[in-house]
Amino acid sequence: MAGIRDDAAVKSGGESNPLIIPVLDDPITISEVEQLARRRLPKAVYDYYSCGADDQYALRRNVDAFSEVYVLPRILRDVSLVDTSTTIFGWTTTLPVAFAPSAMQKLADAGYEALVVTVDTPVLGNRLNERKTPLILPPHLRLANIKNANATKSGEPTVNRLLMDARTAEQAKEILKKAKKTIHSPELTWDVLSHLRRSTSMKIILKGIMAPEDARLAVERGADAIVVSNHGGRQLDCVPSTLEVLPQVAKAVDGKIPVLFDGGVRRGSDVFKAIALGADLVLIGRPVIWGLGYKGQEGVETVVNILGRELSRTMALAGVSSIADIKKAAVHMTREPIGVSKL
Questions:
Q1: Which of 35, 150, 157, 294 has its CB 3.0 to 4.6 Å from that of 161, i.e. a possible disulfide?
Q2: Is 231 a catalytic residue?
């Protein structure tokens, strides 16, 4: 069949393995986009983007959690015109999907309207794949936000990477002592919001909220929005999936500010489920990277188109014709959402 490859057969020169699912050169799922990107990216680069912390339970939990939420189909409803557009911060988009902030992308002149503050990285998580296959930036790329602030030479690991790889507490303390202000700050508190308010007129979005109490504090302290995120499972491995905490976080916010969501989204139906459970906007991170690795801008457009068609189809089969009509009653969770209980 034209356009289908079976790499196992190509490499062996023999017959194809019937247990291997062929991957389309013209992918029709996000999973296929990832497989194609993996073939094109150097191992260190793929590992950097794909790995999670420790045993990667949180990474897998983010994806698997969607299989424990079911969409309840409704029948005999007019879904001849399904509208997937939504509005946030006065900006209308054709899909309730945006690109999550992802490190190591070279960006310029993008017309930023909001400042996203990552609040869940006082230190880097224990990313084993990164430690075993270190990512060395090519000569034409640099970490612009810490230019000339890091003592390491070109081709050497950053201070953050050295700290992540420290084998003893004493070694970590010595690295911190020498690092000064060139690493993720473990000193940030809620006062950072006041400081940022004095420094910028942009909207301030806090990324990395998992606890309902932190969501309430974000509202009280004046954040313009929050992102329910566990950093793609790259920080603390023994955390719940973002989908499991989303309903309680959204309940804590109580509609006062937008709730953005990321973590494990691989299908348009995942977008539907996240919105039903309280998200105003869904962010995708790794799928964008896979699209770039697969075919640059065209690859990213492929990812967006796949999610758009899947979302539209899910809405029609669920009897929903607009994003505003996606309510919690449209889905069923097999487990109770996770929140923080008072002792």
A1: 157
A2: yes
